[in-house]
Amino acid sequence: MYMSVVGGLLWLANMTRPDIAFAASQLARVLGNPGRHHVRSAARVLIYLRGTKERTLTYEPNTDMGLDSYVDSDWAVKFSCSGSMFFLHGCLIHWFSKLQRSVSLSSAEAEFFGAMLCARELVFIRDLLVDLGFTLSAPSPVFSDSKSAIDMSYDPVAFKKTKHILRAANFLRDLVERAVLVLYHISGASMLADILTKAVSRQ
Predict the structure, then answer these.
(1) Residue 116 CB coordination number (10 Å)
(2) Phi, psi for 132 (deg, rounded to 5)
(3) For the chain, does the N or the C end have fewer beta carbons within 10 angstroms?
(4) What whole-number percentage of the chain has pLDDT above 90?
């Protein structure tokens, strides 16, 4: 029963409900041996969905906006979680909430690795849009609430302390240098992707 419920939640999280992506990914980590509290947590998500079933994704394109993305990471003791949201003309078209596969030694490193994951998805989306006939003449903005991650994407000297993530660092720096994307800092309070990386308050 638990596997069936979580499978349904994962489908919803990937298709139409980005607000449950973090919760669904957390529940999916214990499919092999769920406990009572996991079942209660899954039921809580179902209750939340029932109470918010009227909420929908709304698409009202604004052609003045391009391909924008928001990236955030939550630094954990073991594996950190990263999430991104991608907007085309102001409309949410793609999102993800992923567990990082390597242990980050600092919050800046977790944020930087999350930015690299976002950049990888962004390159795919840009290529897809070009194949579909869209014209992308300017770099795509990536909004992050980590000044350290943004600084590392521009400054090669910073990599002396992050040699263990050099490949990811070079990938992101290369995209910045080639003007495929530009990283901008925004406040944590304005970070839309925050909901994809951690449990948030009711507000």
Answers:
(1) 23
(2) -85, 0
(3) C
(4) 48
Instruction: Give the pLDDT confidence of 33-62 residue by residue, as tens digits.
Output: 999 999 999 999 999 999 999 988 989 999
Higher pLDDT, 160 or 97: 97
Q: In 38-88, which ranges are E strands?
A: 67-74, 79-88
> Which pair of structure tokens corresponds to residue 182?
């530009």
Residue 7 tokens read as 């499978």
Distances in Å between the Cα of 201 and the Cα atoms of 16, 159, 195 are 21, 35, 10
User: Residue 28 phi/psi, 5° resolution?
Assistant: -70, -15
pTM of the model as a whole: 0.86
Q: Where are the beta strands (DSSP E) in 22-171?
A: 67-74, 79-88, 91-103, 140-144
Alpha-carbon distance of 72 to 113, in angstroms, equals 10
Tokens read off for 127: 């290529």
Here the tokens at position 30 are: 């214990």
Encoded amino acid at 32, one letter? G
